[in-house]
Amino acid sequence: MLKLVSRITTRSNTHSVICLSGRYSSSIAGADGATASSKGAFGEKEKALENQWARAHDAEKIKMLREALKKQQEHSEELQKDIDALKKSSKK
Fold first, then answer.
1. pTM of this structure
2. pLDDT score of 61
3. Is residue 63 part of a domain?
């Protein structure tokens, strides 16, 4: 890249600098997203692996949420028992 920059700066003709820098910048931006939009066996395999990971990740999240819900329900039941005990003791 330094050689290219030095060649650009040493040129005296402005038109040459513009054309040379235009060619250089267009070659960099040409391949953005090539892998993500590729078709064929590799793309399908990559998509399948990503979907498999997403399903496993979602299953783990659901498992954790169910455990948290179970703990919350147990805690609510304990609080309800305490409320019932306080009501009985206040009526006596």
1. 0.48
2. 98
3. yes
The residue that leads in pLDDT, 7 or 79, is 79
User: Domain total for the chain?
Assistant: 1
Q: Of 17-26, 53-62, 81-90, which gets the smallest average pLDDT? A: 17-26
Buried residues in 40-64 as b, exposed as e (16+ CB within 10 A): eeeeeeeeeeeeeeeeeeeeeeeee
Cα 27 from Cα 25, distance rounded (Å): 5
The residue-averaged pLDDT of 70-79 equals 98
CA neighbor of 7 nearest in space, from 30, 28, 29, 23: 23
Tell me if 24 is assigned to some domain: no
Q: How far apart are CA 17 and CA 48, in angstroms?
A: 47
CA atoms within 13 A of residue 81's CA, in its CB half-sphere = 6
Identify the domain containing residue 80 by its residue range.
41-92
Distance, CA of 53 to CA of 32 (rounded, Å) = 25
